[in-house]
TrEMBL record:
Pfam families from the UniProt entry: DUF3402, N1221
Protein name (record): CIC11C00000004091
Sequence ranges assigned to domain Far11/STRP C-terminal in this UniProt record: 421-846
Residue ranges annotated for the Far11/STRP N-terminal domain, each copy included: 70-332
């Protein structure tokens, strides 16, 4: 067996230096090349069918050289967790006394017939009965499953009876009273009854919202949520809390309810796809499906196509004449489409030209300085000089550059009576038919057209002027019974953006503050030891049972605080991700404005700090004694926020406290003890080895997926300033850890998109070391007809224009918001002033 398992690097030695008897016989019958190829085929057949990856000699290690282990993370992104988890995450251990969990079971038994408005500073029996009902009437249940069934049924009854109307209105009243108290500094004057009623109303609306998301209920609940503007009131309340923070506001609960209200009013990712298809259909987008990975037809962007055309016309000046001789239909359609290209900056000095700059060969910093072709092939070439060169006599070697300037006309003939090579015309047709369209691009062009008209001063774009064929107004005002849900969603987003434009900055600041607060500084190993009787500090030094219980209770509260921060981060990341995606569907300028708010709040630095604290953190790792003998990289990949078990405290769990089944404190597991390399392996039919990671922190996977998508979306295409800022955070090593050690499309796709934007600005050494990442980009992302992102960038030009690009983008964003929402922008300090503009009088006599 050992003679058959020949290593590939030994084949050459066996053939040339030390051939055995069988090899000498083969050499007599055939040549060296044929014999070597035969040996390679034998080895390949051995690896393909031999010994099933593990029945060879372990000491040789031959079978391990071709064994590639792929760690697959079995995680699937979902907008919502199971209902029992979503409801349990609402409460903390201290909330049960505020809501009166024990008293509600004794005072309330039936669902109230009505709920009247009352003074929020005094207790209300009707509100207590309503709260007890939405909590599942737990006094009459014996298990968590029975209580969960009661919660769903009671919430449906409450919605069908219309009791939710008063509850929602009372919650808005609570928001208003808290806002007034925070502004006046009289939060301490709010009574305990108000705090209790406020939390009960939050709980009622939160439970009703979650049940509505997970089951079919009456649409009246969603309609009343929309009419009452509860989501807008919650965002305004968060902004107010940012200015006047107060513990009475219960900001963690408000963030959770805001997240669920966004899902309820706008929809989840499945509904998002339906709305996206509807908007694409209304904008007459024909080739949207060509952007999918499953579609093998390659595409290119409008900017790539425009750059290609400019390069061709520079190199073949007769190319434009060739276009003029084409059929009129093709020529007119092409001209109409090119008229909308944002890249056309030849005839305009608009500031918006910086948003999409065509990087032609003629304008390239390096390629544009190459020598031109000055001698035609038909021109006689002068004889070489008769004197020898300096190099032949020992002088300095003359270095010649054989590249020519591709931005200059091509001086050599291409064929008989053929002015332009046929291959060039075919390439032009290929790219022209592969241009990818999207409604975001069309909307950007339309807004840029208005912006340029305002710059020129010939039309006042700020005034309300009715435009024919305004597709945006047609979509919002459409009456289509087949797409009623999609139209309602777009109207809600427009209404939400208009109402919260002045509060989005405060919302972003609060959400990023939640991310900043998740700095993990609690040692999990010490916590684990205190719950193990053999290693607990009080047990080792003769402490009493009472002392041990106090220590364990204090640690449980510390762990609960860590868990609450994680849940708040979960809600914050979901809000950012959902708002960004819904704004993009509503209008691309809304989405770009929201990304600008995040960029201004240093989102990149906050995200990278969270990533480093979550993976490269000794507080999340086991003791050095336990990890002795384990490679540092294995510790990094196996003991982190993602791989460590999720914190679970059954003593504080909602359903356990309702049913009185609180378990006793016992040993807990907070740190992952099994490295990825020691997990069970499986081998497929191609002899590839897989490791399926099934135990992980699903909450952190949800958080990481959202934040990675947000990071990718903030780095807008053709806006290089943001890429430079993110590159300065030195984030590539952390992203590579996630990319290569946890194979999952929810992580891989956004990370590869981020790398695709970063790699052009990395050095040659970095690219040589990280060729595996570059290969993954080509393997798993949609290819383009012009994939020159790896080496085709004009780095110097990008750097010089990066700041100007950001300024141009901000100008366009300000113009859009001022044009569409002048009153909201006035609140932010922006106003239109035409007093200092001189009036130009038209004199007909001058033109007669």
């Amino acid at each position: 067996m050992q003679e058959q398992n020949i290593l590939i690097d030994q084949l050459e030695d066996q053939l040339i230096d030390h051939p055995d008897a069988s090899t000498r016989q083969q050499l007599k019958e055939s040549s060296y090349d044929e014999t070597f190829q035969k040996k390679l085929n034998e080895r390949a057949n051995q690896l393909l069918s031999g010994n099933k990856w593990g029945s060879g000699d372990d000491n040789t290690g031959a079978y391990l050289q071709f064994l590639v282990t792929k760690p697959i993370l079995d995680y699937l992104y979902s907008d919502l967790a199971p209902l029992h988890q979503e409801l349990s995450e609402w409460f903390t251990s201290s909330d049960y006394s505020i809501i009166g969990l024990r008293d509600l079971a004794t005072k309330c038994s039936l669902l109230p017939d009505s709920l009247r408005e009352f003074d929020l500073t005094t207790p209300s029996e009707e509100l207590d009965a309503l709260t007890y009902a939405v909590l599942g009437s737990y006094g009459s249940t014996s298990s968590a499953q029975d209580q969960l069934v009661n919660i769903s049924e009671n919430c449906r009854q409450i919605i069908s009876s219309g009791l939710h109307h008063i509850a929602i209105d009372l919650l808005k009243s609570c928001f208003h009273q808290c806002n007034v108290a925070m502004e006046s500094g009289s939060v301490s004057m709010l009574s305990g009854s108000f705090a209790s009623n406020y939390f009960k109303l939050l709980t009622v609306v939160y439970f009703l919202t979650n049940v509505s998301l997970t089951s079919n209920v009456s649409p009246d609940f969603v309609d009343h949520i929309e009419k009452s503007d509860l989501l807008q009131a919650a965002v305004e309340f968060i902004d107010k809390w940012n200015q006047y923070p107060s513990p009475v506001s219960r900001i963690r609960n408000v963030l959770l309810i805001t997240w669920k209200l966004i899902l309820l009013e706008f929809g989840d990712h499945a509904h998002m796809e339906e709305v996206d298809k509807y908007v694409a259909e209304r904008h007459d987008i024909k080739n949207k499906d060509r952007k999918d990975l499953s579609n093998n037809k390659l595409t290119c962007s409008h900017l790539d196509y425009f750059t290609f055309r400019e390069n061709l016309m520079d190199k073949y000046p007769l190319y434009s004449d060739k276009l003029a001789s084409r059929p009129q239909e093709l020529h007119s359609s092409t001209s109409d489409r090119e008229a909308n290209f944002m890249a056309v900056s030849t005839y305009s000095n608009s500031l918006s030209n910086l948003l999409e700059m065509p990087r032609t060969n003629k304008s390239h910093t390096v390629l544009g300085q190459l020598p031109i072709q000055t001698v035609h092939i038909a021109t006689p070439v002068p004889s070489p000089p008769s004197t020898p060169s300096d190099f032949m006599s020992g002088g300095e070697k003359i270095r010649k550059l054989y590249h020519v300037n591709q931005g200059m006309p091509f001086v050599y003939p291409s064929g008989d009576n053929q002015e332009i090579p046929e291959a060039i015309l075919e390439a032009s047709d290929l790219l022209e038919n592969a241009v990818y369209e999207s409604y975001s691009i069309k909307r950007s062009w339309e807004e840029r057209r208005r912006f340029m008209a305002q710059e020129r001063g010939n039309v006042d774009q700020y005034s309300e002027v009715e435009e024919p064929n305004n597709i945006e107004e047609e979509i919002l005002n459409a009456e289509d019974p087949h797409h009623e849900s999609e139209i309602h969603t777009l109207r809600r987003i427009e209404k939400f953006y208009s109402a919260t434009l002045t509060h989005l900055h405060g919302l972003v600041e609060v959400l990023l503050g939640v991310i900043k607060s998740n700095k993990f500084d609690f040692n999990l190993k010490n916590a684990e030891q205190e719950f193990d009787p053999d290693t607990a500090f009080s047990s080792r030094f003769g402490g009493s049972g009472t002392l041990t219980n106090k220590v364990q209770l204090a640690i449980l509260h510390q762990l609960e605080l860590v868990l609450l921060k994680e849940i708040a981060l979960k809600a914050s990341s979901a809000i950012l991700n959902l708002l960004m995606k819904w704004f993009k569907i509503s209008h691309v300028i809304k989405y770009q404005y929201f990304t600008s708010l995040l960029f201004d709040q240093q989102y990149f630095s906050v995200f990278v700090d969270l990533l480093g604290c979550s993976f490269n953190n000794t507080e999340l790792q086991d003791s050095e004694e336990f990890n002795k003998g384990t490679a540092p990289y294995d510790i990094l990949t196996s003991q982190n926020k993602l791989m460590n078990p999720a914190i679970n405290i059954p003593q504080f769990e909602f359903f356990n406290n309702c049913n009185g089944k609180v378990p006793s404190v016992g040993p807990i597991e907070l740190i992952n003890k099994t490295p990825i390399g020691k997990l069970p392996h499986t081998t497929d039919e191609n002899n590839q080895n897989f490791v399926h990671i099934t135990k992980f922190n699903e909450n952190f996977c949800f958080i990481l997926t959202n934040l990675l998508n947000v990071t990718n979306k903030i780095m807008l295409k053709n806006i290089s300033q943001r890429i430079f800022v993110f590159n300065e955070t030195k984030c590539t090593d952390l992203l590579k850890v996630v990319l290569l050690n946890y194979i999952n499309d929810e992580f891989r796709i956004p990370i590869l998109k981020i790398f695709k934007k970063l790699i052009p600005y990395q050095g040659r050494k970095w690219r040589a070391i990280n060729m595996d990442v570059i290969s993954l980009i080509y393997l798993h992302l949609k290819l383009s007809l012009k994939d020159d992102w790896l080496s085709g960038k004009d780095l110097e030009c990008d750097f010089n224009n990066s700041f100007d690009q950001e300024i141009a983008l901000r100008s366009l964003l300000q113009f859009y918001n001022m044009r569409k929402y002048p009153s909201q922008m006035l609140y932010l300090g922006y106003s239109l002033a035409f007093d200092n503009i001189p009036q130009v009088e038209y004199d007909e006599s001058l033109y007669s």
